[in-house]
Amino acid sequence: xxxxxxxxxxxxxxxxxxxxxxxxxxxxxxxxxxxxxxxxxxxxxxxxxxxxxxxxxxxxxxxxxxxxxxxxxxxxxxxxxxxxxxxxxxxxxxxxxxxxxxxxxxxxxxxxxxxxxxxxxxxxxxxxxxxxxxxxxxxxxxxxxxxxxxxxxxxxxxxxxxxxxxxxxxxxxxxxxxxxxxxxxxxxxxxxxxxxxxxxxxxxxxxxxxx
Length: 211
What we know:
Blueprint: H1 3-6, E1 17-25, E2 37-44, E3 49-60, E4 63-74, H2 80-86, E5 92-97, E6 100-107, H3 113-122, E7 124-134, E8 146-148, H4 154-166, H5 177-184, H6 188-206
Antiparallel strand pairs: 1-6, 1-7, 2-3, 2-5, 3-4, 5-6, 7-8
Helix pairs in contact: 3-4, 4-6, 5-6
């Protein structure tokens, strides 16, 4: 983990970017033992323990019963919530199913995204970025820029996430395209074309209806 991720400051700070992740943890979780559709999860970790309120929906014929269950116990191995806490982020767990979590967080800026993804991958089978939304005041034509990553092909999304994580778009790092292509096991030209198509898709979403 980077030193920046553990530096915390008190006060009120702006969050410019909203990111929605899909995360499959490596280890078991107390949520695995709960029956019903989990629609909302709240977690915090005082004193090294896990405290959670879990909203569960169950079908009862034509009706749907809603219950809120509380859990207090040991922190699950490889819990993504711990990683979010290390980065001083407040996660909102929007969904939990057999495939994992869908989690929404707000970051100070997109510069922190690669560190968060890298640390989440330490504790996860996989991490996917489903959506990035610019919620800052610096908007084009007063319209929030929104990117839906599900519109990318799997190869385009993986290439784009890998490039972001490696710091390819960080001008201060100057990561060579050939080095990045070697990590993917493809040619430089193939990766260049894949990233170009992904970038075109992303830019098209950000600036649609502004031609």
